[in-house]
Amino acid sequence: MKISLKLFAVAAAFGMAPVAAVAQNAPAAAPTATAAAPAAPGAQAATAQQPIDAISANSQAQPAQPEEASLTSRDEQPSKAEVLSSSLARTQPDAEVGQPTGKLGFQPQVTPIGEEASWFHNAILLPLITAISVFVLALLLYVMIRFRRSANPTPSRTTHNTMLEIAWTLVPVLILVAIAVPSIRLLAHQYSPPKADLTVKATGNQWYWTYTYPDHGDFEIVSNMLKDEDAKKRGEPRLLAVDERVVVPVGATVKMIVTSADVIHSWGVPAFWAKVDAVPGRLNETWFKTDRPGIYYGQCFELCGARHAYMPIAVEVVTPAQFAAWVASKGGTMPGAAQPKSGDETATSPITNPGAAAAAAGPTPTAGGSATETSPEPPAITPGTSAPPVSSQGATESKRGN
């Protein structure tokens, strides 16, 4: 009996092995249907917008999953999606600007705030930190050698050295002042933005970004991370490429209004020196302005859940003509452009727009048919200020429950 049970257990183990392998691979396809939901808000917000190529359309329908963005997928063959022609040619990213370069220090800054912050770090903070570190290290080495037990068997009893106490109080104050002056100036410039040329609202979701352009017809785009093979096909960095980029004109002051639809996220682009938290129920604000066209990448900087590492940001800076073409391709309108007349007949409805309805109808003719005369006011019209009759409904007591 025991031998039979052992044989049965061995057979069951070999028989269940293929099933276990299938079960391990099955969850990779499951998140696709769930993750396809993020594309729905964009379709509801602006039905006129269309993905600009097949890769974007495929990504909108099936956003990249963490399994597809893993290191094991870097050597896979590219997908069969073909890039279609569009009104806005895709700009190729610069490997040295707008993305991690692997070099020491910050990314090259392309905004006035970023340049000022980079100068503050390189010209003020680094020299001070280096000088303080070298001075403290030298002082420690001097004390260890000069006042060691063998070289100084009888320690000094000197206390309350006036000059020394003044020095170690005054020097830190001067260091703090040297740091505070440029730091406060940088904060003042960062939080006192100039007049904005356009506004973009970024909303963080688990786990993708949506962008709304309230100044350009209030259209919305949904931005998902591209799969590794699609990013490689476009020549963009993995884990940073998206299907729908934020597009802004070069030289324009862009005001970013940032919020969240679920948990706390953080919108930021290192090359702009811009980062602000996206808090549910609150509108936070930052701004940037760059005179250099190109693509600049960022990511969510706040731990927001399982796919926190898979919601990147891509901002494309283009010429004003390219920006106008892109807005038109998304179904938006440029500020000041003539709005197309709506075919909706409710625009002249006496209920929704009484003034337009009266203007369209013209003067009311009399019974005699004269178009220049108006009808006399009907008699027995109750003035609008008269009190309405008081209803007696509910005045009588209900017999139920009494």
UniProtKB/TrEMBL annotation:
> What's an example GO BP annotation here?
ATP synthesis coupled electron transport
Needed cofactors: heme; Cu cation
> What are the Cytochrome oxidase subunit II transmembrane region profile domain coordinates in residue numbering?
98-194
- GO molecular-function terms, A-Z: copper ion binding; cytochrome-c oxidase activity; oxidoreductase activity
Q: Which UniProt keywords apply?
A: Copper, Electron transport, Membrane, Metal-binding, Oxidoreductase, Respiratory chain, Signal, Translocase, Transmembrane, Transmembrane helix, Transport
Q: Where is the composition biased (Polar residues)?
A: 383-396
From the Swiss-Prot or TrEMBL record, state where the protein is found: Cell membrane; Membrane
Q: Where is the signal peptide?
A: 1-23
Q: Which terms in the GO cellular component ontology are assigned?
A: plasma membrane
Determine if Signal is one of this entry's keywords: yes
Q: Which residues form a coiled coil?
A: none
Pfam families given for it? COX2 (PF00116), COX2_TM (PF02790)
What the record notes about the co-factor is: Binds a copper A center.
**Regions crossing the membrane:** 124-145, 166-188
- SUPFAM superfamilies for the chain: Cupredoxins, Cytochrome c oxidase subunit II-like, transmembrane region
Determine if DNA-binding is one of this entry's keywords.
no
Q: Give the protein's function.
A: Subunits I and II form the functional core of the enzyme complex. Electrons originating in cytochrome c are transferred via heme a and Cu(A) to the binuclear center formed by heme a3 and Cu(B).
Concerning its family, UniProt says: Belongs to the cytochrome c oxidase subunit 2 family.
What is this protein's record name? Cytochrome c oxidase subunit 2
Q: Which organism is it from?
A: Sphingomonas parva
Organism lineage string: Bacteria, Pseudomonadati, Pseudomonadota, Alphaproteobacteria, Sphingomonadales
